[in-house]
Amino acid sequence: MLYIILLMQLHLSAVMYTWSVSYSPETICAFEGSSVDFSCSFEYPYSHTLGTLKWFKPETYQKQDGSHEGIVVYHSNAKETNKLYQNRTVYTNQDKNCSFKLHNVSKTDIGRYFFRLTTNSRYGKFTGPGGINLNVAVLPFRVTVHREKANGHIHEGDSVTLTCGLENCTPKQGPFAWFKNKLLLPHATESELKFSFVSHEDFGNYSCGLKNSNRTLTNETLLDVRYSPKNVEITVFPSGEIQEGDSLTLICKSNANPAVTNYTWFKISRTNVSYVGCSREYSIRVVSQTDDGQYFCIAENDIGYQNSTVLTVTVLKVEEPGHQHFLLAATGALFFGIAVTLVIFCLVKRRTQFATKRLTEQVCVCISSDQRPTATLTEEVYENLRKMSKPEFEENLTNLTYAELMLPPTNTDRPRHNSQEDRLVIYSLVRNNEDH
Ligand SMILES: *[C@@H]1O[C@H](CO)[C@@H](O)[C@H](O)[C@H]1NC(C)=O
Ligand SMILES: *[C@@H]1O[C@H](CO)[C@@H](O)[C@H](O)[C@H]1NC(C)=O
Ligand SMILES: *[C@@H]1O[C@H](CO)[C@@H](O)[C@H](O)[C@H]1NC(C)=O
Ligand SMILES: *[C@@H]1O[C@H](CO)[C@@H](O)[C@H](O)[C@H]1NC(C)=O
Ligand SMILES: *[C@@H]1O[C@H](CO)[C@@H](O)[C@H](O)[C@H]1NC(C)=O
Ligand SMILES: *[C@@H]1O[C@H](CO)[C@@H](O)[C@H](O)[C@H]1NC(C)=O
Ligand SMILES: *[C@@H]1O[C@H](CO)[C@@H](O)[C@H](O)[C@H]1NC(C)=O
């Protein structure tokens, strides 16, 4: 019985003479500029009278166990408080409650904070062990891109993770908000945005932050997914009907990253697929019936290539006097110097029929690979058979029985002044018409 009473007394005295400080939480991660609550309570021997109370933060080079006091963050004697903290701390000042609030935290506040109390007793000094560790997250958030393959570019199918984080720590104040090209991604609320198989559609600028807080929004980070050309299609200028004599431009459009380096144009006429061009635009200055056909382009970049769908070009015939047509063609030869027009004029029995052979040259400046036609000079022979509609012209021509022109050889080293002869032929033909 006596033993039990003794034990109780010992226990009681242990409570009454104990020293303790309890902190909560042990670590804090706060945004720069925010306010932080340090929760704390303490016990001291009841027979003592409280003396001074203080919070201190050891300097980074000092021991972080409470044995070095460093900077005085709060002191019950206000004058003792360090200037850096003077107007930023709010101490609770209740019995056995040592909580305090620190406003406008900055990077310089990073460190471990301890509470220390003294009493009127000679040995009445106590520092709560452990302390509270404060880390300050410096805004803004940063989007960091992590990928499986450490080096090189990101390609379609790669596994990619975007992380929304800060320099030191990331406060647990979610949910997070993610933006792609400034538009909110409503289902992304984690600090990480994962792409198991990244697609070309994921290419774009990403930013992140905390929901309902514009302040935390990051600068944009480009998710640079590389992909072969997509959506290759042909745009036609002018749109609508195309008539003989019009100019026509076909543009090969696509979406690719990196940009398309090689374009190739093909024309399908009957079963023949021929190579016609190698730049983004394929232009025909003066459209004729022979340009009628189907066209497609191939867009190629470092990653791969894609064909466009086939475009059908239908050239509408224009009814006009035949000689005017020849005059136009001849003028064209004069001005551009690239088109050589040859005329074959035949009169068979009492029907008028023109056989026109027009030779155009198209100079292609690109250097083709081994698989492509190696010639840099493409020659195209346009044939045009026309029936004359004007009866008077028909009559004029009846006297001419036969006319024959020698076609110049079609090899590329043929002298250019041949066009001069062609024009002479055209003029003599026209004069024949007018003389009658
Ligand atoms: C704290 O505030 C007082 C009055 O508001 C001011 O006089 C004093 O200069 C301030 N101290 C610091 C360190 O900013
Ligand atoms: C201590 O003071 C703070 C701030 O006034 C308060 O939130 C907290 O509940 C108090 N703690 C105790 C144990 O009373
Ligand atoms: C917060 O502290 C920074 C320096 O760390 C200062 O420039 C800023 O004016 C302070 N903001 C407020 C609201 O006191
Ligand atoms: C991404 O941002 C850069 C720089 O602000 C801009 O040039 C680019 O067009 C943006 N890309 C997209 C897909 O919005
Ligand atoms: C964000 O962009 C601004 C202006 O473009 C620049 O001054 C700032 O340094 C950038 N911030 C980060 C964290 O990259
Ligand atoms: C296909 O067209 C090209 C160019 O127009 C020509 O050189 C070639 O002989 C043609 N092939 C056939 C089988 O018609
Ligand atoms: C694409 O163009 C580049 C540079 O002009 C050339 O080296 C490459 O061989 C071309 N590729 C093909 C398939 O034509």
Any overview of this molecule?
The chain folds into five domains: 16-130, Immunoglobulins (Immunoglobulin-like, Sandwich), CATH 2.60.40.10; 139-223, Immunoglobulins (Immunoglobulin-like), CATH 2.60.40; 231-316, Immunoglobulin-like (Sandwich); 320-359; 381-435, no CATH class. The protein is rod-shaped and about 120 Å long. The longest helix is centred in the last third of the chain and has 18 residues, at 418-435. It has 436 residues and is mostly beta strands. The strands form eight sheets. Strands 2, 4, 5, 8, 9 and 10 form a six-stranded mixed sheet that branches. Strands 22, 23, 25, 26 and 27 form a five-stranded antiparallel sheet that branches. It contains four helices and 31 strands. Bound molecules: 2-acetamido-2-deoxy-beta-D-glucopyranose (7 copies). One 2-acetamido-2-deoxy-beta-D-glucopyranose (NAG) is lined by residues 104, 106.
The global form is rod-shaped
Largest sheet: 6 strands, mixed
List the uncertain runs.
Answer: 4-8, 337-365, 367-436
Percent of residues in helices comes to 10-25%
CATH superfamily annotation of the largest domain? Immunoglobulins
Mean pLDDT comes to 75
Q: Compute the CA-based radius of gyration.
A: 44 Å
The name of the CATH topology of the largest domain is Immunoglobulin-like
Q: What ligands does this structure carry?
A: 2-acetamido-2-deoxy-beta-D-glucopyranose
Our count of domains comes out at 5
CATH architecture annotation name of the largest domain: Sandwich
Q: What class would the helix/strand composition place it in?
A: mainly beta
Quick one: how many beta strands?
A: 31
> Percent of residues in beta strands?
35-45%
Name of the CATH first level of the largest domain: Mainly Beta
So how many helices?
Answer: 4
